[in-house]
Design goal:
Znf_LIM, metal ion binding, 2 domains, alpha+beta, two-stranded antiparallel sheet, metal-binding, Cysteine Rich Protein
Length: 118
Amino acid sequence: PKCGGCNRPIMENYVSALSAQWHSDCFVCRDCRQPFHGGSFFDHEGLPYCETHYHAKRGSLCAGCHKPITGRCITAMFRKFHPEHFVCAFCLKQLNKGTFKEQNDKPYCHACFEKLFG
């Protein structure tokens, strides 16, 4: 069989995943090339990814903490946030989707926006 990663023939030990066989050294995250700790990987379009790069590909990393969003999510300013990480850029108070002002691609509460830009 040929390796799903490098396309070279497999002569001995291999990993079988995603409908292919892989050299152990080739079965790594497609983006960061790191091996999968604990054996868990994420399938995106038939290729293996670590959790972070899987969510990066899908656009589901929080713009505030850069960690995967698996539960509730706020979409604002064409980005996604954990609700607790959608905060005013000045006072860091948590914001709600409909109650913020935007300046220079950053969210502000109304009070800080008026103070800074009013």
